[in-house]
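Ticket #4471: structure export looks truncated?
Reporter: QA, pipeline team
Priority: medium

Steps to reproduce: submit the single chain below to the structure queue and open the exported record.
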Amino acid sequence: MSAPYVLVLYYSRHGATQAMAKQIARGVEQAGMEARIRTVAPVSSNCEATEPSIPASGALYCTEADLANCAGLALGSPTRFGNMAAPMKYFIDSTSALWLSGGLINKPACVFSSSASLHGGQETTLLTMMLPLLHHGMVLAGLPYSESALLKTRTGGTPYGATHLAGRDNDRALDADETQLCQAQGKRLGHLALKLMDSSH
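Actual output as written to the record:
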């Protein structure tokens, strides 16, 4: 049996959400847990299009086993009209078998997002991303205001989860507050995963 890990699962079109995922993974590892970074395949409006099972570069695509066997989940997506991107929704919609088995019940989870504009639907994206995780019986963790960056950030950061302002051209790097909040969220998730694993034995 493999060592316990937190799954950091994201979709990223221009790299901003991927950058967040890496910082969240760093926080998970600061908590003493392994972080497993995975992504999901893009979807096409062409019904004949198919994606290879292994991407040519970048993070590996998530499998059902990656999700089923995780000790915790950080779920990230860019915002699309106030909701998660279609590839992530498509992946989540394929997890009915895991829902039927109750495989994610009582595991901790958090959500994170990125948008091009400051008020581009980050909070509604985070809240709607939480809904399927609640259906799976997961324990949701936000960002507490003990994280001082929440009170001073002028870019990303919400109590519902870490966010990032990517800018109009999606080329704005994570700033110090956004990086701190991503790592804090990952660290909190890692600690919760360890505690909930201990209490289940």
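Status: closed, not a bug. The export was complete when the record was re-opened. Leaving a note from the reviewer for reference: The radius of gyration is 16 Å.
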